[in-house]
Design a protein that fits this description.
The protein has seven helices and nine strands. It has about 220 residues and is α+β, with helices and mostly antiparallel strands. Helix 1 packs across helix 3.
């Protein structure tokens, strides 16, 4: 299981993501990793995604922005800053985050393991290889590419085939493209840290536990 960071380091990343967005709103300045950044966050270069969700009056959440970089090319702290700013201001599905929203949004940071191409000789072999609650997916075919974080199929309670189909659709491809010759499928894992409430306690998500609850509630 991919777990490069402890809870203290993960909490630092989530707070850094929020701080980067707040600083940019305040001064239009891109935050640099602060002096108190834990050393490992400055040495590692994992891929990072930031997810921002709006908390509604009934306590449920809805997506407000999610952008990241699956292949690490800068240190994890810098990648967190970059992905947070992109999720807040550059997600084409949403208007830029407004200052009035800061007290009603949750920040979540996903640290990604290096992508590994899935080698399989049949569609069934791939279905057996991909584990919901463990693996994130990247599907590539020609100029098209789509990524789904590992928490997505857990939140929607998808099975593996639906997960693969949805990853193809994310890439603007036909749902069953993953079973076709010429499609490349990559898997990875993610360590996910999240606010329980806006500006509140930060915890590490256990996706397998969440998946078990999802299946229990379906019964």
């Amino acid at each position: 299981m991919f777990k490069p960071y402890n809870l203290e380091e993960g909490a630092y990343l989530v707070k850094l993501a929020r701080r980067a967005v707040e600083e940019f709103i305040k001064s239009r300045r891109v935050l640099k990793p602060p002096e108190d950044t834990p050393s490992r966050l400055l040495k590692d270069n994992y891929g990072v995604f930031t997810t921002i969700e709006t908390v509604k009056e009934n306590g449920t959440t809805e997506l407000r922005g999610c952008i990241g970089f699956p292949r690490g090319n800068v240190n994890t702290a810098r990648a967190t800053i970059n992905s947070a700013l992109a999720a807040a201001f550059d997600d084409p599905r949403f208007a830029p985050l407004d200052p009035s929203e800061l007290d009603s949004v949750l920040f979540e940071v996903s640290v990604l393991s290096p992508l590994e191409e899935a080698r399989f000789s049949s569609p069934r072999e791939l279905v057996n290889m991909v584990k919901v609650g463990v693996h994130g997916l990247v599907v590539e075919r020609g100029m098209y590419s789509g990524l789904l974080l590992p928490q997505v199929p857990v939140e929607y309670c998808w099975d593996t085939v639906m997960y693969l189909d949805e990853a193809c659709e994310k890439a603007y491809l036909s749902p069953e493209c993953w079973a076709e010759e010429g499609t490349r499928v990559y898997v990875y894992e993610a360590q996910v840290f999240r606010e329980r409430r806006p500006r509140g306690e930060i915890y590490e998500r256990n996706l397998l536990e969440e998946l078990n609850r999802c299946h229990f509630e379906e019964r």
